[in-house]
User: Which sequence fits this backbone?
């Protein structure tokens, strides 16, 4: 059995999977703030989940973690959502368990999980993660592409509209401002994204925010496919809990482009975009598979 | 000696290089239109160049060609600028010479040439080609990345401004419309791009077209760096004959972004963008090195 843990800003999701990434056990708990509290919570959710299967972290085949921050050699930095500035997570857990986990960025872990869940093999995909932020994890010929500085896929800071809403960083029409939980909430003066989306059917301001979100999701897919020519873009992250209307809204924009352009019609974004099931814990599965050396 | 030939829409550029890509002989001639005329012209420029070095195409160490079109297994298709719909170029030249050349897309060849000219090694770069069209060639960890369908780097069809000028394909503010020879000429009612740029110092319409070009070049670099995290973007293609004002104009836009955003400042596009010397025949050199199995 392989242990995978996705440490999110609000909850920590731990799974035990077999070598094919099929989940047998799962345990989810709230994530506290600050390095010591996070470490302790992660260690305990791991130990409790393993106990359910008659195992310990020291006796599972491998351990992988996904963290919302920069990760280099097991050291996490700039994980603002966790209240962590810098933490040697791999080192601290090795001290506690006597085995060394693989620690990776959560979007990269989710990309591996989505790739496994959608058939893996040597193919090339991108996971477009619509969570608190917006970023992509990239798998080329079956291997994670991290970039020369580990920042590949940071497309949230691309602008889709020079006259769009200004984001926290001063960028107008940024993809992250238009299509992430934090960006939607920012546009609505702090209201949670889910609540803004719930109002969109009856409120013009919320409908405009939702339209921009559909346009931004379609634009992010277009950037990923035209730049990388991945076979498929898989959409994951918290915003997928909106359900099918998210992918349908983005596909409406893509179909408009396809009607207007022979080139875009040949690229066929509509057929190359798939939404992941929000109930499948792709980031935790991917973390487990990263621990197993996949991706 | 290795033979490399870049077949452009207006001229064909042939070089003999050593194993490091250093040019010893070069011959440039106009490119005719249509498959038979192009084939014959390419064969003759190759034979004449080889003769200058006391060689023949059959006795050089390898042969590579770059062609502005789609290439699969030596077969060229959709090379509109050459008047070629479909041509088995590798097969036809093999029949004539008894040896098989490597045929590749010209932007991919130029990317390999730029990568060789800038120090090669295992690093990751993108060549942003500002020619008749706009597209990028991508080298990741020292290998050409072509994508799942061979269309990676087709970023000319991304929009930078939903209110920008409409291109031939109906797309508003497309990067190719704003920053390619054909796009600039299209915006100016058919006037050649070089002539539009020459007017920019004294004419407001031409200045607006030039400003859009600078913005589009900076945006293309931003897309390549944020998506792929290549170390460096090298700018090549016919528009580089404008000289240093091209890269300086793009850098002004990048510096504005860097002043306005901590994130963009950390990405440091300004330092990661370099313009290739327009006198160095990177596409022909790259074609020769592709023939030698590099990239």
Assistant:
């Amino acid at each position: 059995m392989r242990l995978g843990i996705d440490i999110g800003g609000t909850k920590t999701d731990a799974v035990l999977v077999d070598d094919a990434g099929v989940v047998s056990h799962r345990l989810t708990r709230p994530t506290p703030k600050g390095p010591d509290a996070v470490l302790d919570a992660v260690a305990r959710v791991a130990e409790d989940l393993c106990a359910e299967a008659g195992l310990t972290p020291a006796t599972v085949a491998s351990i992988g973690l996904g963290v919302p921050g920069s990760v280099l050699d097991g050291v996490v930095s700039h994980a603002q959502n966790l209240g962590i500035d810098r933490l040697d997570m791999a080192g601290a857990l090795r001290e506690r368990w006597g085995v060394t986990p693989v620690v990776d960025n959560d979007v990269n872990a989710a990309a591996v999980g989505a790739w496994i869940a959608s058939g893996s093999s040597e193919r090339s995909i991108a996971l477009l993660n619509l969570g608190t932020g917006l970023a992509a994890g990239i798998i080329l010929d079956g291997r994670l592409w991290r970039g020369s500085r580990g920042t590949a896929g940071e497309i949230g800071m691309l602008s889709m509209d020079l006259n769009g809403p200004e984001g926290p960083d001063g960028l107008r029409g940024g993809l992250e401002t238009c299509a992430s939980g934090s960006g939607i909430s920012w546009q609505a003066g702090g209201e949670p994204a889910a609540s803004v989306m719930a109002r969109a059917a009856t409120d013009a301001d919320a409908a405009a925010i939702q339209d921009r979100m559909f346009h931004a999701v379609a634009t992010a897919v277009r950037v990923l496919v035209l730049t990388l020519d991945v076979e498929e873009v898989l959409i994951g992250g918290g915003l997928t809990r909106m359900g099918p209307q998210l992918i349908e809204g983005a596909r409406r924009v893509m179909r408009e482009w396809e009607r207007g352009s022979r080139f875009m019609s040949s690229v066929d974004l509509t057929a190359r975009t798939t939404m992941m099931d929000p109930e499948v814990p792709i980031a935790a599965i991917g973390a487990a598979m990263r621990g197993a050396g996949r991706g």
